[in-house]
Amino acid sequence: DIQMTQSQSSLSASVGDRVTITCRASQSIRNHLSWYQQKPGKAPKFLIYAASTLQSGVPSRFSGSGYGTEFTLTITSLQPDDFATYFCQQSYSPPWTFGQGTKVEIK
Amino acid sequence: QVQLQESGPGLVKPSQTLSLTCAISGDSVSSNSAAWNWIRQSPSRGLEWLGRTYYRSKWYNEYDYAVSVKSRLTITPDTSKNQLSLQLNSVTPEDTAIYYCARAPGYGDYGMDVWGQGTTVSVSS
Q1: A91: contact with B, CB 8 A cutoff
Q2: Is residue B22 less than 8 Å (CB to CB) from chain A?
Q3: CB contact at 8 A, B82 and B36
């Protein structure tokens, strides 16, 4: 199975900050990488697919980049609604696997 | 607008069979352009993809990946009710989790775009 590693389990940031979350795959997954946002008690919300394509309706302050094994999710100018846990997920080779999540907390 | 709604028993005794359903509205389980997935989430395992079913001139049911549920899990479509079903045999407390169904455009090789709200399952005597 492909292992997905998010090196930061949590990070603290303030409203207006630029936040970068990283995700690493144990082997190349080309651009088959998605990002999700999850708030307590809710299902994950689909943010980005194909490493850098924003899902319809997702604010443009979210962006993704990367290819192969290294990926990043960037939030420019963090908003109060963005405090949540973010997961990456590979869909290059089944079983699809997720990172363990990065919780963005209020500083 | 596509919506998914999971339902299930909530509490299951160890060694029993867990059965869940996912009602689909706004799309079809028989769609040629989507795959239908089950995922679960627990504090110990995180998010764990369990498997999928999809129709491409015939049905493909793929759920023999996760070691944790290998040989115990079945995922099937119910076209008469437009829903997705999950059956997990011989449950243990380690199967306690929130279970989600999700749609993936295409075969799922670019993520899962619509999720149900999840149903909580506890395995306990």
Answers
A1: yes
A2: no
A3: no
Nearest-angstrom CA–CA distance, B121 and B20: 10
Residue A54 touches chain B, beta carbons under 8 Å? no
Tell me the pLDDT tens digit for each residue of A29-74.
999 999 999 999 999 999 999 999 999 999 999 999 999 999 999 9
B-chain residues near A95 (CB < 8 A): 49, 65-66
Whether residues B111 and A101 touch (CB distance < 8 A) is answered with: no
Q: Can you name the residues that pair with B99 across neighbouring β-strands? A: B40, B119
CB neighbours of residue A15 within 10 Å: 12
Go through chain A and tell me how many residues it has.
107
Q: Which residues have C-beta within 8 Å of that of residue A85, sequence separation ≥ 6? A: A37, A38, A39, A101, A102, A103, A104
Tell me the torsion sign for CA atoms A96, B110, A85, B18. negative
Q: How many Cβ contacts (< 8 angstroms) between chains A and B?
A: 54
